Amino acid sequence: MLTFTFLSKLILHGYMSLKKESLSLREAQKLVLLSQRLPTPKVVGSAQDATLSSIEHLGYVQIDTISVIERAHHHTLYNRNSRYKSAHLEELIADKKVFEYWAHAASYLPMTDYRFTLPRKQAIASGKQKHWYKRDTKLMQSVAERIKTEGPLMAKDFDKKGKKHGEWKTAPTKQALENLFMEGELMISKRVNFHKVYDLTERVLPSSLNTTTPTDDEYGKFLVKKYLRANGLGKLTEMTYLIKNTKPLVSHALENMLADGEIAQIHVGDNMYYILPESYELLNKPLTRKKLNILSPFDNLLIQRKRTSEIFGFDYLLECYVPQHKRIHGYFTLPILWDGKLVARMDSKVDRKKKVLHIHQLTLEPSLRNTETFADAFNKELQLFMEFNNCISVLLHRTVPSSFRFESESRFPHLVIQ
Question: What is the CATH number of the domain that holds 326?
Answer without folding.
Answer: 3.40.630
